[in-house]
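Subject: design request, 294 residues
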């Protein structure tokens, strides 16, 4: 397998056309044409499987794990909490089968709403105190509820609409910028690893394509499960779960940039913007989360 080669100049040339403020539709076309050209054997839906779309051996091993998924208990427990916190009251269709519509821009609040953002607001609105309930964005019980909601959306095609209003476009472009901008001591952009070097190795890891990234979150990661169980001294059903924004934090850390934290009980606006752009790029790909990852 080829090692990651960071030819900065080649990347800059590749980046230039995406950085200008093009229409989201043009961005999407360019974004996927790149992947389709690089991987002529893959169909759009194949990208829902991350690295397992690229490597047959790893895929076989992963399919074995998914036969008896380690997240099953977590989904059941997430469903119980979904009921306990009366989540169905706040969402369209009682909160069932709606993940694919997130994030969306709301013209009334003039904000981009993520599923997790709305979920936290819902729990508060229903009179629960997230601090007392130990509900934190990103992981644990909270991610377990989000994982259950994702599970009920399996098979539905990602359908994010980028509202053309000025404010919405500013958020979209902020997210796009985050994706293409170099950061951290290592000076890597998301796109360096997950677009221009996807399919190559970086420190023993095969790099997944960014197309399809958002279809399977929250994921259930072995690494997270082990770490949490070790910290608590026992394992629980939610240990492995993490939302897409938890993953963003991890990937920021990989390049030695500081992960962005929620602020005053709200998700970090920079990550919300990134999620808006990043999820839109996967429009049409069916939700297949939660999925097991390393
Ligand atoms: C130095 C390379 C590097 C950079 C830069 C990087 N990542 Fe990652 N990322 C990885 C590795 C390695 C993994 C684990 C293997 C994989 O699935 O790609 C990963 C995994 C992910 C995953 C999970 C994929 C899946 O299928 O579960 C997402 C989502 C992701 N990265 C998003 C991002 C975003 C968004 C950025 C920019 C903020 C970013 N990454 C920056 C290396 C990187």
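Subject: RE: design request

Done. Sequence follows.
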């Amino acid at each position: 397998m080829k090692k990651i080669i960071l030819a900065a100049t080649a990347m800059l040339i590749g980046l230039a056309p995406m950085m200008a403020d093009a229409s989201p539709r043009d961005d999407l076309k360019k974004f996927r044409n790149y992947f389709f050209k690089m991987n002529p054997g893959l169909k759009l839906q194949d990208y829902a499987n991350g690295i397992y779309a690229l490597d047959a051996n790893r895929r076989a091993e992963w399919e074995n794990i998914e036969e008896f998924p380690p997240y099953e208990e977590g989904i059941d427990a997430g469903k119980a909490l979904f009921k306990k916190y009366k989540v169905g009251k706040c969402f369209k269709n009682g909160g069932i089968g709606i993940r694919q519509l997130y994030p969306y821009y709301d013209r009334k609040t003039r904000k981009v709403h993520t599923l997790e953002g709305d979920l936290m607001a819902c729990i508060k609105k229903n009179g629960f105190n997230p601090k007392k309930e130990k509900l934190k964005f990103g992981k644990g019980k909270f991610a377990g509820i989000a994982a259950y909601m994702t599970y009920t959306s399996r098979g539905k095609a990602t359908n994010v609409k980028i509202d053309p209003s000025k404010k919405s476009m500013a958020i979209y472009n902020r997210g796009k910028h985050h994706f293409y901008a170099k950061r951290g001591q290592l000076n890597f952009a998301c796109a360096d690893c997950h677009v221009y070097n996807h399919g190559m190795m970086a420190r023993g890891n095969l790099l997944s394509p960014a197309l399809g990234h958002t279809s399977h979150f929250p994921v259930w990661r072995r690494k997270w499960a082990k770490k949490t169980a070790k910290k608590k001294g026992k394992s629980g059903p939610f240990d492995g779960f993490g939302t897409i924004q938890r993953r963003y934090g991890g990937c920021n850390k990989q390049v030695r940039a500081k992960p962005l934290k929620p602020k005053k009980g709200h998700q970090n606006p920079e990550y919300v913007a990134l999620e808006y752009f990043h999820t839109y790029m996967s429009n049409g790909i069916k939700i297949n989360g939660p999925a097991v990852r390393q």
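The pocket of heme C is lined by residues 50-51, 188, 190, 192-194, 202, 205, 207-208, 213, 219, 244, 247-248, 251-252, 254-255, 278, 293 (CB under 6 Å).
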